[in-house]
Design brief:
The protein is of the alpha+beta class and 327 residues long. It has ten helices and nine strands. The chain folds into two domains: 94 residues, Phosphorylase Kinase, domain 1 (2-Layer Sandwich); 213 residues, Aminoglycoside phosphotransferase (APH), C-terminal lobe (Aminoglycoside 3'-phosphotransferase, Chain: A, domain 2).
Length: 327
């Protein structure tokens, strides 16, 4: 904590009674609310230890902000940088946004659904104009890479003499995904549709501040910004914002409205949407990050995010889901 205060003083000139309080949330890293001289800031610690990756994230934010999108930009240090590094930990200081609200999943109001859909369309329209390549296009596990990691994780759990509830769920999840990859795996060459664009990478309501009426105030957390397929990001957003394992008519109606408003704001045909849903499905059946964090990195904060309902449902109902959501 004292090291952080020393660096805040050196890099940002914050010296007057600085206090740090750990911020809520943050599954992978630790963030803080900084208060000093009557002002508040948000101090973000990036999950990656690669400075070059953080710099790309900041470059993406600056690009979108320059195009007029409501991005929260990092504050510059006294030497004109936007990153504060302490060893292999990289931080950035942001203005604290007052009055921004989040809505409970399943209770997102219509105004917020529409405004966030339009925001995603604006991000995608702008991302098509990106003059630089953010990262390798669509980081994508091969079947062999997946099988090696999933077998490693299954072996670890199999040796636990008294498995916990999480161990049992994780084992079921791994076995399900292994069977689906065996059955459904498609190479990247068969999935590419439209040309990749600069995407947010983690677009969902938790990374948006709304006003109390549901209008978008700010979008943040571009840590996963990369070159990717817009339709894949659309389906990922639909899942995390509205479905996430629940397929009742209320949530489907919310998802349907989001896709409808997105398509009103940007031209995208049904073929691209079909491909995007398959891209999203291929990603979730090969997603091992929660289990990897738990069993290989010792990070249990993401345990609460593990669920199998989405994977199981999409394994056999992608066509039906598409027909129910795309008008």
């Amino acid at each position: 904590m004292e090291t952080l205060k020393d660096e805040l003083a050196r890099k940002y000139g914050l010296t007057n009674g600085v206090s740090l309080c750990r911020a809520e949330g943050g599954f992978i890293s630790t963030n803080y609310i900084v208060e000093t001289a009557g002002k508040k800031y948000f101090l973000k610690q990036y999950a990656t230890n690669k400075l070059s990756k953080v710099q790309v994230v900041h470059k993406a934010k600056a690009f979108f902000a320059l195009k007029g999108l409501p991005v929260i930009l990092p504050i510059e240090t006294t030497d004109g940088d936007t990153v504060m590094s302490i060893g292999d930990k990289h931080h950035a200081l942001f203005p604290f946004i007052e009055g921004g609200v989040h809505f409970k999943r399943g209770e997102i109001p219509e105004t917020a659904i529409k405004s966030s859909a339009r925001l995603l369309a604006d991000l995608h329209r702008t991302g098509k104009e990106c003059p630089f390549v953010a990262t390798d296009v669509m980081s994508y596990k091969t079947k062999e890479e997946f099988m090696e990691r999933v077998d490693e994780l299954i072996s670890i759990i199999s040796k636990i003499t008294t498995p916990s509830t999480f161990d049992t769920l994780a084992f079921e999840s791994l076995m399900l995904k292994k069977s689906l990859v065996e059955r459904d795996y498609m190479p990247l060459s068969e999935l590419k549709g439209e040309d990749p664009i600069l995407i947010h990478g983690d677009f969902q309501d938790g990374n948006i501040f709304f006003d109390r009426e549901g209008r978008v105030l700010k979008v943040f957390d571009f840590d996963k910004a990369r070159m990717g397929l817009r339709a894949g990001e659309l389906w990922r957003a639909v899942n995390y914002m509205f479905l996430n394992g629940f397929f009742d008519e209320h949530r489907l109606a919310q998802a349907r409205l989001f896709i409808y408003e997105y398509r009103k704001a940007i031209d995208i045909d049904r073929d691209e949407l079909v491909n995007g849903l398959e891209v999203f499905y291929q990603r979730i059946i090969k997603s091992l990050w929660i289990e990897t964090f738990h069993y290989l990195d010792g990070n249990t904060r993401t345990d609460v995010l593990l669920e199998n309902r989405t994977t199981a449902y999409l394994s056999d109902h992608r066509k039906q889901l598409f027909q129910r959501l795309v008008m």
